[in-house]
Amino acid sequence: MTGLRPGTAGFGPAGVPPAGGRVEPARPGAAQQVARAGRAGHPRAHGWVTARAVLRTTRPRQWPKNLLVLAAPLAAGSTGRDGRGPVDLALAVGAFTLAAASGYCVNDLADLERDRRHPAKRRRPLASGELTGTQGRVLAVVFALGALAAAAAVPGWGFSAVLAGYLLLSVCYSLALKHLPGVELAALASAFVLRAVGGAVAARIPPSGWFLLVCSLGALLVAAAKRAAEAELLGSAAAQHRPALAHYGPRRLRLLRTLLLAATVLAYLAWALGTGSGWHLLSTLPLLYALLRFDRLVSRDPVTRVEDLLLTDRRLVAAELLWLAAFLAPML
């Protein structure tokens, strides 16, 4: 990576410095210009800019991940043992959304300097200066307290314990675990699994061993895909932005993804055979296609957020819907 492309500030169309060899400083990005205009202008404009920056910090495009809370009730074909099930699940989704937002704030604060040098992350509100460090810390606390308050509204202490564990994991990941090769993959996958476990606890549905195994393997697959895409996009500068990537070679990540994909499908197939349902057995086929398609897309066109592929690629979405239809067929 050269770090400079044609059209970059201070360079001509061919990426060549202007006459005299003097490189002009890069102009502020649109986000910074808007933020400055808001701060210098009318208070209402300032408030709107800040509110928008806060919203962006919560990563709205990542919110669909919190629907994993519904995985256990979906697998069980039930929203719970009593009439509170839908309400408790809604509270659980909201609690994890707020908890994740708190984690994003902590993560952005911990990686402030690295994010400012990252080609994409430098546009995040904290890295770009739209939000101050103090505002980021306040938001992290407010979101965490809101998440715990929503969790407390779910009967029993089980869900609150799971959510507290998620918050603790998020802080540990941002401050230390993300720099440990292997451990950071497990921590990233655990964040997905805790959402599914939280949904099971909120609905008072005991998760089966097969359910936890398939969720864990699938989450590890997504985590490995994220790192593979990140390494491909950043190239030789990958380790500067995420030190753990220095320990992952392309071949290792490719092998890991292949093993995890096979293990996920085999675990799901074993579960389907155990249910004795032909529909569940049939649902293995669209699942296999979806995972193969996901893996191929990550390898062919790596993107910053690989989770987006699950909702944006038409073929992948079609396979997911076919799987869901076959999975739910025995319950209808």
Automatic annotation (TrEMBL):
Topological relation to the membrane, as annotated: Multi-pass membrane protein
Protein species of origin: Streptacidiphilus pinicola
InterPro entries: Prenyltransferase_related (IPR050475), UbiA_prenyltransferase (IPR000537), UbiA_sf (IPR044878)
Principal location: membrane
Protein name in the entry: Decaprenyl-phosphate phosphoribosyltransferase
Single annotated GO MF: transferase activity, transferring alkyl or aryl (other than methyl) groups
Compartments it resides in: Membrane
NCBIfam families in the record: PRK12324.1-4
Residue ranges with Low complexity bias: 17-38
Enzyme Commission (EC) number: 2.4.2.45
Database matches in Pfam families: UbiA
Residues passing through the membrane, by range: 131-151, 209-225, 255-271
Keyword terms: Glycosyltransferase, Membrane, Transferase, Transmembrane, Transmembrane helix
Region (Disordered): 1-44
GO cellular component: membrane
